[in-house]
């Protein structure tokens, strides 16, 4: 989470200020997406819903519904050069990253909870009201 004021102004509960999890649980979500919406005996999403999540937006080919999509060469900083054109994922402000590549049948998760150094320096100067 990185919105220093969310804790103080909203009692620590805020939908815009981060997602809390661990690599094991996110790996299950990512495998669920690779499986077309199911994991084990549980179906979280229909295959049609997974397609809807990952379909490129007509306005911007790098956006799906809740996911970034490897829609063009501008996404190299997120997906690198080896991910397929069908790869999708999400990044977070503190350096988190998920990449799901259905063509290569793989997923990557990287979690962190520390904002960039420049922001940590400016946060020390922040005032909370």
TrEMBL record:
<dbReference type="InterPro" id="IPR012338">
    <property type="entry name" value="Beta-lactam/transpept-like"/>
</dbReference>
<feature type="domain" description="Beta-lactamase-related">
    <location>
        <begin position="10"/>
        <end position="117"/>
    </location>
</feature>
<dbReference type="Pfam" id="PF00144">
    <property type="entry name" value="Beta-lactamase"/>
</dbReference>
<dbReference type="InterPro" id="IPR050789">
    <property type="entry name" value="Diverse_Enzym_Activities"/>
</dbReference>
<protein>
    <submittedName>
        <fullName>Esterase</fullName>
    </submittedName>
</protein>
<dbReference type="InterPro" id="IPR001466">
    <property type="entry name" value="Beta-lactam-related"/>
</dbReference>
<dbReference type="GO" id="GO:0016787">
    <property type="term" value="F:hydrolase activity"/>
</dbReference>
<keyword id="KW-0378">Hydrolase</keyword>
């Amino acid at each position: 989470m990185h919105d220093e004021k969310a804790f103080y102004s909203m009692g620590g509960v805020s939908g815009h200020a981060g997602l809390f999890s661990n690599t094991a649980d996110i790996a299950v979500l990512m495998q669920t997406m690779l499986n077309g919406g199911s994991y084990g005996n549980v179906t979280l999403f229909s295959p049609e819903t997974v397609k809807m999540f990952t379909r490129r937006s007509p306005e911007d080919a790098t956006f799906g519904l809740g996911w970034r999509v490897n829609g063009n060469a501008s996404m190299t900083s997120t997906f690198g050069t080896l991910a397929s054109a069908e790869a999708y994922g999400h990044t977070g402000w503190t350096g988190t990253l998920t990449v799901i590549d259905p063509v290569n049948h793989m997923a990557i998760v990287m979690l962190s909870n520390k904002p960039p150094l420049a922001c940590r320096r400016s946060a020390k100067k922040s005032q909370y009201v």
